[in-house]
Amino acid sequence: MIIDAHTHHLTASGITSVEPANFDPQPGRLYSVGIHPWHTHDVGDDTLQLLEQYAQHPQVVAIGETGMDTLRGAPLQRQAQVFEKHLQLAQKLNKPVIIHCVRTTQQIVALCRHHGVTVPCAIHGMRSNERVAKPLIDAGLYLSFGPRFNPATVLSTPRDRILIETDDCDTTILEVATLLSPTLGLAPADILALAGNNLHHFLTATN
Ligand SMILES: [Zn+2]
After folding, report:
1. 35-89 tens-digit pLDDT
2. Which terminus, N or C, of the chain has the lesser number of Cβ atoms within 10 Å?
3. What's the pTM value of the predicted model, to 2 decimals?
């Protein structure tokens, strides 16, 4: 079962996130392709064309990671433009979006609304508190949790919108489930099942 919503490692149990230039599909693996907000400085038409081309590949099941980050990357206005390209592409191809969001919650929600995004969207690496999470939850987004998370935020997230991930750390997805176990009051195996089921819905929900 595919459980890990976002990883930068190549694994059979997750969605491997790569930049368009690094997309090299291996048999039986699933990918998301996107331009990370940290890498938005010198994004040209060639990169955007590659993104559009690879986004259509059958092993690319989601668009991202994309998003906005006030601490790193190009000026926010440029990050927003690149993010909007991803949203338009996801909507056109009917594929969900994996979003990197650092201190840009309002902008992310506003841009999703502005573009009438109906494909599922997930904020990955969610560590923020409940106050930050609330508008994201209210907007219908999924939240993806890794080894570092705010327990109150996990508890405030509807159970059917909880995803789990390893991102770029060496932690296994079972270790992430084990870390979440006391907060959710569920056995790690049950968290893996819940997250796998939610990820399946995230990937197969249609417009
Ligand atoms: Zn990542």
Report:
1. 999 999 989 999 999 999 999 999 999 999 999 999 999 999 999 999 999 999 9
2. C
3. 0.96
Chain centroid, CA 50 distance in Å: 20
* CA–CA dist 29, 38 (Å, integer): 25
Residues whose CB is less than 8 angstroms from the CB of residue 75 and which lie 6 or more positions away in sequence, other chains included = none
Query: Given 3.20.20.140, 3.40.50.150, 2.60.40.10, 3.40.190.10, which CATH number is that of 4-204?
Result: 3.20.20.140
Beta partners for 167?
7
Domain ranges within the chain, ordered by starting residue: 4-204
| 65 CA distance to ligand 1 middle (Å) | 7
Neighbours of ion ligand 1 (CB under 5 A): 167
Alpha carbon of 198 to ligand 1 centroid (Å): 19
**Residue 141: left (phi > 0), alpha (psi -120 to 50), or beta?**
beta
